[in-house]
Specification:
The complex is a heterodimer of chains A (117) and B (111). Chain A has 117 residues and is mainly β. Helix content of chain A is 0%, strand content 48%. Chain A is built from no helices and eleven strands. In chain A, strands 2, 4, 5, 6, 9, 10 and 11 form a seven-stranded mixed beta sheet that branches. In chain A, strands 1-3-8-7 form a four-stranded antiparallel beta sheet, with no helix packed on it. The radius of gyration of chain A is 14 Å and the shape is globular. Chain B is mostly beta strands. Chain B has no helices and nine strands. The radius of gyration of chain B is 13 Å and the shape is globular. Classes of the chains: A mainly beta (117), B mainly beta (111). At the A-B interface, strand 4, strand 5 and strand 10 of A face strand 3, strand 4 and strand 8 of B.
Chain lengths: 117, 111
């Protein structure tokens, strides 16, 4: 299994440009989420999905869109990039514990380092 | 979600035991306690999870007192490769629960 993969690893955008960060997992996990991490900070939740076709907002959703058309893929779209979105972006997935919501054991991708100038 | 408080940073030396304590005074009855480890330029990695008393695996031990208002992650005989940020999370699986991360504890292990 490749686990959680993210592309690209690095990206530089100009203010106002749009782009999509890709995330895929091959573990058949139902739960997927996007976090951003700024220098010296913890991870902040952007959006998450509890299954194909179902998404919801996290702590810092403004400026980002997501969709979940398949179990495997959970792309994150930046609509109009701003310098404040310069960050490292992590995608994560987890399985659904029997009879419960997300398992605590999340699997993280390697991250995408985004710079907006 | 219960708020957690951890030290911002800790220093240790190779071969020592390191204990990182997390305070979670408002922990709810059904909440579990989970710890993650993050190396520079990598995503966090699950270390250990517990509900009460003591849990041990090949990497660490987790001690939870009876009142569950705090927990301690214990790393035995640390090495330089244990230098990382350690996050304590509290919550309960259910519904649309997604773990949220604070700033964590930056552990530096010296030779």
């Amino acid at each position: 299994n490749a686990g959680v993969t993210q592309t690209p690893k690095f990206q530089v955008l100009k203010t106002g440009q749009s782009m999509t960060l890709q995330c895929a997992q091959d573990m058949n996990h139902e739960y997927m989420s996007w976090y951003r991490q700024d220098p010296g900070m913890g991870l902040r939740l952007i959006h998450y999905s509890v299954g194909a076709g179902i998404t919801d907002q996290g702590e810092v959703p403004n400026g980002y869109n997501v969709s979940r058309s398949t179990t495997e893929d959970f792309p994150l779209r930046l609509l109009s990039a701003a310098p404040s979105q310069t960050s490292v972006y992590f995608c994560a997935s987890s399985y659904k514990a029997p009879g419960q919501g997300s398992s605590y054991e999340q699997y993280f991708g390697p991250g995408t380092r985004l710079t907006v100038t | 979600l219960a708020k957690t408080t951890q030290p911002i940073s800790m220093d240790s030396y190779e071969g020592q035991e390191v204990n990182i304590t997390c305070s979670h005074n408002n922990i709810a009855t059904n909440d579990y306690i989970t710890w993650y480890q993050q190396f520079p330029s990598q995503g966090p990695r699950f270390i250990i999870q517990g509900y009460k008393t003591k849990v041990t695996n090949e990497v660490a031990s987790l001690f939870i007192p009876a009142d569950r208002k705090s927990s301690t992650l214990s790393l035995p005989r640390v090495s330089l490769s244990d230098t990382a940020v350690y996050y304590c999370l509290v919550g309960v699986p259910g519904g649309s629960y997604i773990p949220t991360f604070g700033r964590g504890t930056s552990l530096i292990v010296h030779p």
